[in-house]
Amino acid sequence: MAIYAFEGREPVIHHSAYMHESAQVIGDVVLGEECFVGAGSIIRGDYSSIRLGDRVAVEEGCIIHAPPGETGSIGSDVTLGHGAIIHGSQIGDNVRIGMGAITGFHSVIEDWVILGDGAVLPPKKTLSGGMVYMGNPAKEVRLLSDDERVASGFVVRLYADLAGRYHRGLRRLS
């Protein structure tokens, strides 16, 4: 795994978090308990700070960054789908960001939100909790269902479990 200090600021990664060897974590970054950071993901805390709570799944190919001098924060029990770009956002707890979704500068996502695959949240916009949003630009489409809340929890537990399993069971063959 590629963990870099930048100008004296070093990542703090909980021992139960898993980072793939091709992922990069740079500078002022905190990863909470049982986080999973997939292959090719980049979390840059070079001229900003990045904070991930517990049980955050950063699926393969995600990019997380924030504007200079600011903090990008992601709550606990969050899943960032493959290839998502999170830029200078404040993301609450129990949020699911779809594959290829993009969040703009100073955007806010409250608790219990699904931002659909490929959705684009423009800068300085807020997504209210308990809702599903889709499209470009992201628009509210409906209330989050109980089944979706259960499914989000299932995915969170799946990746938290994978973090431990990867520590114990991943073995490079070549």
Q: Any overview of this molecule?
A:
It is a single chain. This protein is mainly beta and 174 residues long. It has a single domain (2-169), classed as UDP N-Acetylglucosamine Acyltransferase, domain 1 (3 Solenoid), CATH 2.160.10.10. Helix content is 14%, strand content 39%. The protein has one helix at 146-169; strands at residues 2-4, 12-13, 18-19, 24-31, 36-37, 42-52, 56-58, 63-65, 71-74, 78-80, 85-87, 90-91, 96-97, 102-103, 108-109, 114-115, 120-121, 126-127, 131-134, 139-143. Strands 1, 2, 4, 6, 8, 9, 11, 12, 14, 15, 17 and 18 form a twelve-stranded parallel sheet that branches. An eight-stranded mixed sheet has the order 3-5-7-10-13-16-19-20. The model has no long low-confidence stretch (mean pLDDT 97).
Descriptive terms for the model:
single chain, mainly beta, 174 residues, UDP N-Acetylglucosamine Acyltransferase, domain 1, twelve-stranded parallel sheet, eight-stranded mixed sheet
Spell out the helices and strands N to C. Answer: EEEEEEEEEEEEEEEEEEEEH
CATH homology superfamily: Hexapeptide repeat proteins
Our estimate of the beta-strand percent is: 35-45%
Which CATH C-level class is it? Mainly Beta
What is the rounded Rg? 15 Å
- Whole-number total of structural domains: 1
Largest sheet: 12 strands, parallel
The name of the CATH topology is UDP N-Acetylglucosamine Acyltransferase, domain 1
Structural class: mainly beta
Shape: globular
Please tally the β strands and state the result: 20
CATH architecture: 3 Solenoid
